[in-house]
């Protein structure tokens, strides 16, 4: 393995992990939402300094084999409801808008609302009515739509949408269509379900603007350094591909999928059969569940609870994180979903933020040290944090700022615990894997609220999702619904999709024979799916002949990852040594001094009891009273409560 750079772009912080043959390096930089390419290259500069001891981006990019990038910008945009206004074009007689709205009224109204226009499919076939047909575009833009989705409901939807596209391009100047981009649902996904196609197209169109400018700008800047391989986008299916071959909806929840790849590997290393994971970032907490070392994947995933045409791993991303706004509404504390993001950030960042966040709370509780936070690279302002909590929380509740601190901490922990409990079944074997920059900080309190008595914190916790991306392959997946004579359709579709895969993999730099091709048929009858993997004989098995629908799925993949078969043990050695103390606020008990243990200086077997603080450059963990910690053979941390 040569050098790999994995970058996970979050709403508040961007994580960078550099993997070499014998070592790994990690760093973070503040996300710059106004220009994502800035934090991208800030991260590369910081990474080069970590690797070489000095900034040398040119050398780093000359030596790297692959740069893989994921982002939560799309996930955050949907969670926070920030993005373009979409318009929807349907055919007359279609009840698609009503059905979509019934599935999720709030999301549908946010994305589309009343910005819907209809066309007669008969007119789409009539070239003489082209101008009248495309007038629907003008009507939608006049009511505020700045992106348009076309989704016809018909057995020949793909043909009608293709014809409408030709008419639109003939009747509108290209510069106008470029200003109001159009997306055709059938070009994006071949799916028997019009609802899934509709949601997929709308969500993709919504996410696209946030992705497009940054990704192409970053790729162009990388070319200036003459990098030998293009920028690869890590997708939510667990693989990576070039920017030009990655659709926006595939970036949704891609960072969390990297985390789940890491959780899967971690569960194997420690032989954990039931792992509930939480990746606490700035804007969201990404929750996953790995059972028997397997990530649960849905063939048809859901975004915000609505169905889409593509597969997704089962991950929930509630709007609660280190930068989520803490507020008082109707006399109660509300946690998120709005976030202060990286700009202006929590009040204690001193960048103009005036809202309270859990970062401000943990600073005032004494958990965070202003001199060591973010590796000492980000000064924290105690007074700004105190003012934010006093004005936004204490005053509305009629309590002191000190009294508000523990209430806010409890509300934050209970919010995440509630999300964890609603996501996965918790039993005596369940362990919690806590990662992300803010994941370990409140892990013990969250685990207690969930009834979980064992927590693991990976040594790479602060950049764990970026680290997990290191196991991905390069590849693409395609699918098409077989219609008419299914055997003939299968033979033609198989040849077409394999040829398409060959072209895409050639563009990635791999010749035929250097990657694997896997094809399967998925049949559905009365709502029940069956799967058949195709071998050398390209034919439909007899038991699929009478299925309601049959879909051909083809994947092409260049394997880069190798299975890590290392197994780790956990045993106590020498007592951990603390070099300093820190004073923690304990409510009515006042302030208590507790030992601080530097994670990077602890050897395997080092152990201790709470209350205590564990910290390294980019994460801090509170070990609560009644909890014990021990460093594993691989340098990870296990926390247990009581006699567990």
Task: Summarize the structure in words.
- The chain has 644 residues and is α/β, with parallel strands linked by helices.
- Among the domains are: 117 residues, Nucleotidyltransferase, domain 5; 105 residues; 84 residues; 62 residues, no CATH class.
- The protein is 34% helix and 27% strand.
- It has a 10-stranded mixed sheet with strand order 3-2-1-4-9-10-22-25-23-24, with helices on both faces. An 8-stranded mixed sheet has the order 13-12-11-20-21-32-31-28, with helices on both faces.
- A hairpin with a 4-residue loop joins strand 2 and strand 3.
- Helix 4 crosses helix 5, helix 14 crosses helix 15 and helix 14 packs across helix 16.
The radius of gyration is: 26 Å
Helix content: 25-40%
Largest beta-sheet details: 10 strands, mixed
* Number of H- or I-type helical stretches: 19
Question: How do you describe this structure in short?
Answer:
With 644 residues, the protein is α/β, with parallel strands linked by helices. Among the domains are: 3-78 and 211-251, ATPase, nucleotide binding domain (Nucleotidyltransferase, domain 5, 2-Layer Sandwich), CATH 3.30.420.40; 86-190; 475-558; 580-641, no CATH class.
What key attributes describe this structure?
alpha/beta; Nucleotidyltransferase, domain 5; ten-stranded mixed beta sheet; 32 strands
